[in-house]
Protein: WD repeat domain 75
Organism: Pelusios castaneus
Amino acid sequence: MVAQEALRVVRCGGSKLSGTRAAFSADAKSLFCASGDYVKVYSTATEECVHILQGHTNLVTGIQLNPQNHMQLYSCSLDGTIKLWDFTDGILIKTFVVGYKLFAFYTLAGSEDSVFIIIPKRNEEASDSFQLVSVKLPKIPDQEVEAKELSLILDDIGQSPKCTAFGREGEYVASVCGLHLLVYFFKKKKIHRFPLSATSSKGANNYFTCVACHPKEDCIASGHKDGKIRLWRNFNHKREYTFSTLHWHHDVVMDLAFSVEGTSLLSGGVESVLVQWRDGSDCKKEFLPRLGSTIEHIAASPNGTFFCTSHTDNKITIIHSNLRVSAIIQGLVKGTDVKTGLVVDPRTKALVLNGKPGHLQFYCLQTDKQLYNLDIVQQEYIHQIGLNQVDLVKAAFSARGSWLATVEQREDKETELELQMKLWSYDEQTQSFTLNTRINMPHESHVTALCFRDTDELEDVTPTLVTAGKDGRFKVWVLVNDSDAEKQSMGWSCDFVGSYHNYPANNCCFSEDGSLLAVSFEETVTVWDSDTWDLKCTFCHPPGRIRNLCFGRLSCSKYLLGTTSNGFLCCWNLLSCALFVFKPNEPRPLCIQRNICRGRVQWAVFIPREVPESVGSENHKWLSRSQLYFLTQTQDLMTFSTKSTEERLTPSSKQLAIEESLPVTPFYLLLGKHRNQQQSKENADLGTAVVPSHLAQHSPAIKELLHTPAHVLPSASFLCSIFINSLLIPKENKSAGEVADEVEMDSEKAEDESDEDIEVTEMEPDINPTEILGEITPKLSKSQEKELRKIRRMDYSWIAAL
């Protein structure tokens, strides 16, 4: 009996890349960043994700290179563990279980067996009091080790990793919290505290936001909420300390970082500008502007070649030391609200949703990478709190992706509502959308829905768009020819306006063949003929206001589905006008999955598969032709999968199987097809059966064994016998009849050789006239050939005597 497949919730992308400070490898060829509970390894040259280090069960909060081995990487997480990775091969080497939620992680070159972490006092994520402690990492050969030996360094410090930094050669550690700077000296085991007043006579806001330490000198740089940077010196004396002030930022200083040699200081904030201060002087500063969004983190490579900035729009920018952008790693843009919902681009099968303010982002689900941004609003975004700016609220594609409709609005308490609908046509030459028609105030109130007719792109059907609004109207827009003698042009214009008792129109949807249009007005659903725009029927008795409408597909195209504000799902049969109303928990649904994510599910969408997937269980047939994706409150993209852990190799194992991870190029397809044809032809000519490959040759364990570096494998004597046995082909048991046939064939072989000369002469008979006419002697079976040989060996000399 085949075991039933279990349905799993799998995170497929969208996690935040800028949650913690990124780190470079020693040669600056790789960049490490935390992405949810993963650690991603990117190439700084190609921007491609090389490895995904998977093993943590909660948010990764810190990553650092191992100072004792630059080919290894430490990571810490809220799951209470520290993991050591071989990032070149994507292999987990060891796990240290601390038992506390870890919010930051630091390493020092002089501390071989100790690292530093920030933990909450009461081991609670919502705690407001944190400690900096050192933890001793035991040198035990086990895969998982407990690290419980903790030593307190500083108490009552900030939670953020940006608020703590280690000084020159690890002689001291500086931490900021509120209005206090704390400096702990390891040799003296003393703490110096430097307070600031909350405000000054000039209205400055002196609260600390971040801190950085000079790598070569006794100098501490601190950032503040009023945009100032203070450079602290002579802080080994409590009363004789001094500080100088640098000021360019007009708002909060988000992060600070010194270059490797300490010759320059980097700062960033909400202005989206990276500022480089030379030699700590206010007069020697350089700028890299227009980086796109607020800078959250800054990091420098160990060899001084690159800097990198992490941004609030889920982007990492890699920058040369001469302040030129080298590469951009863009994840799913994190907006404040996904007003457009999740839309699928029919051309690229990309997920389309709100991106940067006023933009649509096209996001590839297969590569977890943004394809491109489309500027819809086409206005400069002003970073100012409380300023109402134009929002992109609706988007819809035509059936084949040739047209895109967007709606943008700006609403202010003091001014009237501003609405604008734009129609975009796809340009094959530029491979992008170009603006075709701009319509000001398509409705007198908010636009609630818009949809294209699915049969738009047939040659004999005019492309049609329908919009619904709170003004109690739905409008039909068609593509018309606006050409004149001077130029040819096509544009969109309103063809029909419909309403129903002046109720606000909430939703609209076309049937699969485009012959019917359904529009909901509060608690009433109306069905219209799309050719004459006549009202065909109304459904007036669902419980609650209609929230969504959708026609069925294929064999279910006669059904119209709707959800209500009271939690009911309604199904109308358009042929019989019958209504079926049920709660989601009453008729038996195909699938119920509880606790699929920590927060609330915001949006969900089905995306068609390029090739239907074979699903064994009848309960999961709904996943064969399309895949369901949903977006959580933290904007993590989740999906459902029926594949087991063995079938879904971990990302590290996928990277180890090098021959499977290489791209399938046209040359590979041509050469591989030729080799397969040649091999099958040889097998057919020889008449030999191809021996099926053994199961072990396709085992992920064997593939990983063949590609794993030797220094992390067990001894060869232990693996040799297991590996050899896995490659052996088992001997097949033959039946008694087959053995007897083989013996008989061997005995006949000698007799056949003696008759070989006679058979040679017999193989040259005269031409038979029947063969010329097309009557070919049928081929004999093996048993018939055997009987024929026996007849040939019989002695017929007695016939001659007659």
Summary: Confidence is low (pLDDT under 50) at residues 645-662, 687-697, 754-776. The radius of gyration is 36 Å.
